[in-house]
Amino acid sequence: MKLRNIAIIAHVDHGKTTLVDKLLQQSGTYRENQRTVERAMDSNDLERERGITILAKCTSVMWKDTRINIVDTPGHADFGGEVERILSMVDGVIVLVDAAEGPMPQTKFVVGKALKLGLKPIVAINKVDRPDARITEVVNEVFDLFAALDATDEQLDFPILYGSGKNGWMAESPDAAHDVGMQPLFDLVLKHVAPPTVEQGPFRMLGTILEANPYLGRIITGRVASGTVKPNQSIKVLSRDGKLVETGRISKVLAFRGLERTAIDEAEAGDIIAIAGLPKGTVADTFCDPSVDAPLQAQPIDPPTVSMSFIVNNSPLAGTEGDKVTSRLIRDRLLREAEGNVALRVVESAEKDAMEVSGRGELQLAILIETMRREGFELSVSRPRVVLSKDEDGQLLEPVEEVVIDVDEEFSGVVVQKMSERKAELIEMRPSGGNRLRLVFYAPTRGLIGYQGELMTDTKGTAIMNRLFHNYLPYKGEIQGRRNGVLISNDQGEAVAYAMWKLEDRGPMMIEPGWKVYKGMIVGEHTRDNDLEINVLKGKQLNNIRTTSKDEAVRLTPPIRMTLEKALAYIEDDELVEITPKSIRLRKRLLDANDRKRAEKSKVA
């Protein structure tokens, strides 16, 4: 069987998953009359809602007499742990670039990894039918990007196709006829991408993607480096440093056929397959014949930069909205997630009933929380903190990111001001066409927590921000946090409209009438910088004297709506976000006012 293994690299929203849909359709993977779902590769609910790819996925198509395995990679740097390993499975990459936006920082992140591995890229300029397309400049930007990433002369001599994934065509020039569909892309893959290199010897495979399946247990996907593999075959698993992890038998060998995974009787070297039956082997381990004693070289994983405490929900409303509340259930769920997600680190916390979870960024952690919430979990989480480290001289280091913000010229002043308040350093400022500027900063990760929402407000939703881990650099000092205090409920019950109306001059509310509140729960933002306890349960005093004016319905100002990301960025270190399948509430870590005063005094002392 002739084989080709390729990955598709693109920035968030540049049309990668839509392109794969069209490749599946035009290769005959779908029947003519088969109803298909748009963005078929984004199978996860959160991926569909956010329009991003979180998990890498494999598919395969037949073109002429060759099977092409296609891996759809995440474009977001928070999921970079996936990307690095996936690229080691493939022999070529298609770099998909938006004809208007050009190559973006996350494209840079993944392309840099691909070029370092020696992969030869094919560049596909997508969305050339956009009215604001600037095709020639974008091609030059791609070339400059490759050159800046130390591409070899051979890699710089890349073939280019132009087209529209949405309309299902690719061609050698933007003005060519569109009647051949994706054929030029298929033909170029066969011509430009080398067949997989196969080593001699017994079966060896590097674990690349891990998932838990309710029927088959742990499933490991990878590319067979040498030999063949069949169901019921005895194998062993070696860790990255060559230690024996386990021995066992393979229960199933699965290959990718279109969007389906099909059980096969034998897989050959060079093919991308999934195997089931081994309970311990994980990503970056070598799965091999018992006679093999040296592991395959595996890519080390970039360090996590942000951590949070996941704590058992101990509020008075605990257990009323979710069915998974205990510390054991939360712990098991987090450990299961860490098994399949190598960019995530989960350790027991010094606090009672708490786990410390570290990841690549707050987006990755927010998606984990949102997934758990939909599964019926209730938990409390702390504000995201950055993972600090020290150098040999004992100097404190913190993670710094390269941040690229595309913004309309009129808003550039406020962006530069806000970023400098967050201890960011402006590296570059250049026009990016259409009265827009591209600003490049080096900013500490802790300064960026929660900035996305503020940026959208400051620029009326027109800015595009992209972040990429740059390096660990010396600690940049204190960053100003939230300036306002909060309004805290001093009793438990249901919020009353009349009481809320009377308290409106104290600051905007975060709750609505009829919502359940409890002592220590944050119900609004104070207009001043101190916290204030208030009573939102107090109804109107009734007497037997009729007033001449009718008791009119109380008109309340709409409350501040707290999304998960906004809540995580809003809270301070002495506060928590309580998350249940139905609600997101903000609360003080210590619910009792006297406990809070004692903690404050001991901090001062």
Automatic annotation (TrEMBL):
<dbReference type="InterPro" id="IPR006298">
    <property type="entry name" value="BipA"/>
</dbReference>
<dbReference type="Pfam" id="PF03144">
    <property type="entry name" value="GTP_EFTU_D2"/>
</dbReference>
<dbReference type="InterPro" id="IPR048876">
    <property type="entry name" value="BipA_C"/>
</dbReference>
<dbReference type="InterPro" id="IPR000640">
    <property type="entry name" value="EFG_V-like"/>
</dbReference>
<keyword id="KW-0699">rRNA-binding</keyword>
<dbReference type="InterPro" id="IPR047041">
    <property type="entry name" value="BipA_GTP-bd_dom"/>
</dbReference>
<dbReference type="GO" id="GO:1990904">
    <property type="term" value="C:ribonucleoprotein complex"/>
</dbReference>
<dbReference type="GO" id="GO:0005829">
    <property type="term" value="C:cytosol"/>
</dbReference>
<dbReference type="InterPro" id="IPR004161">
    <property type="entry name" value="EFTu-like_2"/>
</dbReference>
<feature type="domain" description="Tr-type G">
    <location>
        <begin position="1"/>
        <end position="197"/>
    </location>
</feature>
<protein>
    <recommendedName>
        <fullName>Large ribosomal subunit assembly factor BipA</fullName>
        <ecNumber>3.6.5.-</ecNumber>
    </recommendedName>
</protein>
<dbReference type="GO" id="GO:0097216">
    <property type="term" value="F:guanosine tetraphosphate binding"/>
</dbReference>
<dbReference type="Pfam" id="PF00679">
    <property type="entry name" value="EFG_C"/>
</dbReference>
<comment type="function">
    <text>A 50S ribosomal subunit assembly protein with GTPase activity, required for 50S subunit assembly at low temperatures, may also play a role in translation. Binds GTP and analogs. Binds the 70S ribosome between the 30S and 50S subunits, in a similar position as ribosome-bound EF-G; it contacts a number of ribosomal proteins, both rRNAs and the A-site tRNA.</text>
</comment>
<dbReference type="GO" id="GO:0043022">
    <property type="term" value="F:ribosome binding"/>
</dbReference>
<dbReference type="InterPro" id="IPR005225">
    <property type="entry name" value="Small_GTP-bd"/>
</dbReference>
<dbReference type="InterPro" id="IPR035651">
    <property type="entry name" value="BipA_V"/>
</dbReference>
<dbReference type="GO" id="GO:0003924">
    <property type="term" value="F:GTPase activity"/>
</dbReference>
<dbReference type="GO" id="GO:0019843">
    <property type="term" value="F:rRNA binding"/>
</dbReference>
<keyword id="KW-0963">Cytoplasm</keyword>
<keyword id="KW-0690">Ribosome biogenesis</keyword>
<dbReference type="InterPro" id="IPR000795">
    <property type="entry name" value="T_Tr_GTP-bd_dom"/>
</dbReference>
<dbReference type="InterPro" id="IPR009000">
    <property type="entry name" value="Transl_B-barrel_sf"/>
</dbReference>
<feature type="binding site">
    <location>
        <begin position="126"/>
        <end position="129"/>
    </location>
    <ligand>
        <name>GTP</name>
    </ligand>
</feature>
<keyword id="KW-0342">GTP-binding</keyword>
<dbReference type="InterPro" id="IPR035647">
    <property type="entry name" value="EFG_III/V"/>
</dbReference>
<dbReference type="InterPro" id="IPR042116">
    <property type="entry name" value="TypA/BipA_C"/>
</dbReference>
<comment type="similarity">
    <text>Belongs to the TRAFAC class translation factor GTPase superfamily. Classic translation factor GTPase family. BipA subfamily.</text>
</comment>
<comment type="subunit">
    <text>Monomer.</text>
</comment>
<keyword id="KW-0820">tRNA-binding</keyword>
<dbReference type="InterPro" id="IPR047043">
    <property type="entry name" value="BipA_III"/>
</dbReference>
<dbReference type="InterPro" id="IPR031157">
    <property type="entry name" value="G_TR_CS"/>
</dbReference>
<keyword id="KW-0694">RNA-binding</keyword>
<dbReference type="GO" id="GO:0005525">
    <property type="term" value="F:GTP binding"/>
</dbReference>
<dbReference type="Pfam" id="PF00009">
    <property type="entry name" value="GTP_EFTU"/>
</dbReference>
<dbReference type="InterPro" id="IPR027417">
    <property type="entry name" value="P-loop_NTPase"/>
</dbReference>
<feature type="binding site">
    <location>
        <begin position="13"/>
        <end position="18"/>
    </location>
    <ligand>
        <name>GTP</name>
    </ligand>
</feature>
<dbReference type="GO" id="GO:0000049">
    <property type="term" value="F:tRNA binding"/>
</dbReference>
<dbReference type="InterPro" id="IPR047042">
    <property type="entry name" value="BipA_II"/>
</dbReference>
<dbReference type="Pfam" id="PF21018">
    <property type="entry name" value="BipA_C"/>
</dbReference>
<keyword id="KW-0547">Nucleotide-binding</keyword>
<dbReference type="GO" id="GO:0000027">
    <property type="term" value="P:ribosomal large subunit assembly"/>
</dbReference>
